[in-house]
Amino acid sequence: MGKWRYGVVLDAGSSGTRVHVYQWLRNPIARQKAGPEELKSLPEIKTKEAWTKKIRPGVSSFAHKPELIGPDHLAELLDHAKSIIPAEDAKDTPIFLLATAGMRLLGNLERQILLDQICSFARHNSDFLLPDCGAHIQVIPGVTEGLYGWIATNYLMGAFDAPEKHDHGKGHNTYGFLDMGGASAQIAFAPNATEAEKHAEDLKLLRLRNIDGSTQEHRVFVTSWLEFGVHEARRRYLEAMQTAAGPSVKELPDPCLPSGLRTALDGKDVSGNEVEPYLLGTGKFDECLRQTFPLLDKDAPCADDPCLLNGIHVPAIDFDVNHFIGISEYWHTTHEIFEMGHKDKAYDFNTYQERVDSFCSQDWDSIERGLEKHKWGKKIDRQKAHEVCFKASWIINMLHDGIGVPRIGLEDTTSSTHNGTKEVLAHGKEKGYLDAFQAVNKIDSTEVSWTLGKIVLYASSQVPLDIEQALPVGFGSNVQGIPDDFQYPSVQLLPDADGFHSEHWHDALFDGDSPRRIPGFVLFMLIIVMAGFFLCGRSRRSRVFNHVSNVLRRGGPSHPNHPKKRKGIKKILPFLGRSATYERVLEDGAQEYDLGTIESDGSEDGGRLSEAGSAKLGPPKRASSWGSNSNTPSFKYALDNTSTGTIGLGISGGSNGSGIAMDRAGLVVRTESRDHLAPIALGPTTNGRRSRTGSPTRSHGQKSPSMTPLADD
């Protein structure tokens, strides 16, 4: 085991899954190397660009083929992580797959099946630390994604470790966080002191731990807008356009597409009119801005004032101290085309909008020629050129009309020569961090991703406490101590972690490491057997018990003349055999015969006659065939109770039928046919003895293997 610890986080987004590998020093080593100031800082997380890998499509696309998500999707990502992390450190390396908005849009059953498949595949195809599926493989809510992003942003900006260097005024030293993906958008920020006090119940309490074991706390507002990501916004935009045009219109003019571009509703090119309806680009960006504005739903009812958009409550934002960092689409849409096409890097709102308008008003043929010459870089393909005009209009509306960012400029990185943002930090310091918004992709060569926030939280939680009474790392409601909804970075940190068991029964039984796994499996199988037994029906239960009882009596197959004297299961558990067999005693004076057992007919009363029915029956009669030498069985058993020969129990006497006996309660009992009886004397006098008062005398002759003498019980 080396000096480093590792962590693996898979960001399962709507359009693809990206694996991130992170590294940090083990705490004893970090403490030895840290100076006095560094001891009061969080663990230092390291990563490399080569340690990140993204594949498409998103995991939600496997909803109808979940069995393929492992070999066709996860295998490549796991192999990438295993190629980076030393084999001896794998078992100490936690792995998390955290799915976002794409999975949130699935149904509960589809979502859970996918998560189970992911966890099972990860456990069987890697040695990474995965103690609980529910905690490590999950769909995280938008507010959690936003909080992780806020942690990552402020961690990379240095606001946690050196707050004095990030003084925004009014004692404020953290940055706000804006993220926009394909399906959702998030905002997270620490309100100013006035708003924080006014909306204290709306804030999240976040607790982190420094290298020396001391803690730091932050109170953050976080919210998420589902269906406000660029792809979901585009879907809502097209639905509104179709509704306004009506079903008969086949050609839909779209001001958010370059002039002359013809596409299907899904964005694919069409050469003619074979696809209906289709979109025809008009290249009018001002009109595009007007048509996307209603998607903000600014007029939605606000139950808890103030609200920004879609009726969702957000405390008032003080842009004097709240300065926002935008990532994901906020970066890509403002840079991928509109930076590469110009030598100068200065951006303000007017300049940005002019460049977007200039690009989007071009005819599509001109744009295609520019793509062939890589005018906007090699990363810009036809699909991105299709989408960028709508995305730009949506970004502008979200930033300025939705969130309310002042239109004073998006970013100014006059010395920027790459996608890193060391210059952004220097520029922010020079200006006193007065820019209300700046889009970034990397800070100090590290990509800004909410996955980093997850690992910062986890690594911080691994630092030993400086005092026993120190509060745990994690986040929850803004109350003192440990709130009821407090979320720990790992299941291992739960107060009852030693007794924790996975919420998935198959994990605990088959994949877990708990010593209780085998007894639990045995108990589970016993429950299944017992449930099947009681569901199989009374008649079948009778046959099962008779067979088991006979086996237990004899201890297995034995010679008919030497049965082993063992107690049956019905003697051990008599209540289990009540409806299975009956032992009846003949009336005094009746002929004495050995009796076999009979089976219950399965009726609710166990085959008993009513008292009225019993009274109508006369004394038992013997059939003359008992004394004959005929080998024909003396009883016929019928299921038809309507026959004139039956007496209500489905037993009918045939021409060769033998006698029917009754016990003292009037219950009819059949005797064995001669084929099943041992040869005994049938004369008026017997040489046997009674085994009990009123019971038949038993012969001392040969015993039938199908009978158990009462004396042997």
How would you summarize the topology of this molecule?
Elements: E1 4-12, E2 17-25, H1 27-33, E3 53-55, H2 69-84, E4 95-99, H3 101-104, H4 108-125, H5 133-136, E5 137-139, H6 142-157, E6 176-180, E7 184-189, H7 193-198, E8 204-209, E9 215-226, H8 230-245, E10 251-254, E11 262-264, E12 278-281, H9 285-292, E13 324-328, H10 329-335, E14 346-347, H11 349-360, H12 364-372, H13 382-403, E15 411-412, H14 422-430, E16 437-439, E17 442-443, E18 446-447, H15 450-461, E19 474-477, H16 505-511, H17 517-535, H18 538-554, H19 569-572, H20 611-616, E20 636-637, E21 651-652, E22 660-662, E23 668-670, E24 689-690, E25 697-698
Parallel strand pairs: 1-4, 4-5, 6-13, 10-12, 13-16
Antiparallel strand pairs: 1-2, 2-3, 6-7, 7-9, 8-9, 8-19, 11-12, 14-15, 17-18, 20-21, 22-23, 24-25
Helix pairs in contact: 2-4, 6-15, 9-13, 10-13, 11-13
